[in-house]
C-alpha cells in the first residue's frame, strides 16, 4: 500500500510504498531527542512531491545517514543512506505518516546509544 506523509507545515510531502511490518525505536542521541519511529524502505519506494533542494540535511557521528528536515517547521520525516550492500535506502519516520497510529505498530527497541 502507499502511505502519505510530510512535515508539519506542508513544505515536505511524499508518499511511500510498502507494508509496515515493524518500526525501530532507537535510543541514540538524535533519535531519542527527535522521537523517531523508523521504518526502512528502498529509496526507490519514496516518492517526494517536494524538490530535494527544499529539504535541509543534518549529519552527525559517521555521517552515513543524511537526516532530512523541514527548514520551516523543523519536522524530520525521513533520512537517507545506504545499507550494508550499498543499496540506497530511505529511513522513514512513521510519526509523519497520515493515518498511522504508532500504538498499533510493533515497536522494536534498538540500542543505538550503546552500539
Ligand atoms: Zn515544514
Would you mind describing this structure in some detail?
This protein is mostly beta strands. It has one helix spanning 29-34; strands at residues 2-6, 13-17, 23-26, 38-42, 46-48, 56-58, 66-69, 78-82, 88-93, 107-110. Zinc ion binds next to loops.
Strand order, main sheet: write it out.
4-9-8-7-6
Estimate what percentage of residues fall within beta strands: 35-45%
Largest sheet: 5 strands, antiparallel
Arithmetic mean of pLDDT: 95
Spatial extent as radius of gyration: 13 Å
- Note poorly predicted spans: none
Spell out which ligands are present.
Answer: zinc ion
Please provide the count of β strands.
Answer: 10
Kindly name the structural category. mainly beta
Secondary-structure element order, as H and E?
EEEHEEEEEEE
Coarse morphology: globular
Distance between the termini: 33 Å
How many H/I helices? Answer: 1
**Share of helical residues:** under 10%
Q: How is the secondary structure organized here?
A:
Elements: E1 2-6, E2 13-17, E3 23-26, H1 29-34, E4 38-42, E5 46-48, E6 56-58, E7 66-69, E8 78-82, E9 88-93, E10 107-110
Parallel strand pairs: 3-10
Antiparallel strand pairs: 1-2, 2-5, 4-9, 6-7, 7-8, 8-9
Considering the chains and any ligands shown, give keywords for the structure.
mainly beta, five-stranded antiparallel sheet, globular, about 120 residues, binds zinc ion
Amino acid at each position: 500500500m502507499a502511505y502519505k506523509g510530510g512535515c508539519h507545515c506542508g513544505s515536505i510531502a511524499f508518499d511511500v510504498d510498502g507494508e509496515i511490518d515493524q518500526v525501530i525505536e532507537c535510543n541514540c542521541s538524535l533519535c531519542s531527542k527527535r522521537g523517531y519511529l523508523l521504518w526502512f524502505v528502498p529509496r526507490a519506494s519514496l516518492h517526494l512531491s517536494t524538490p530535494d533542494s527544499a529539504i535541509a540535511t543534518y549529519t552527525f557521528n559517521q555521517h552515513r545517514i543524511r537526516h532530512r528536515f523541514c527548514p520551516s517547521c523543523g519536522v524530520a520525516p525521513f533520512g537517507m543512506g545506504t545499507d550494508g550492500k550499498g543499496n540506497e535506502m530511505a529511513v522513514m519516520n512513521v510519526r509523519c505518516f497520515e493515518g498511522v497510529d504508532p500504538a498499533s505498530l510493533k515497536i522494536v527497541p534498538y540500542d543505538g546509544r550503546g552500539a
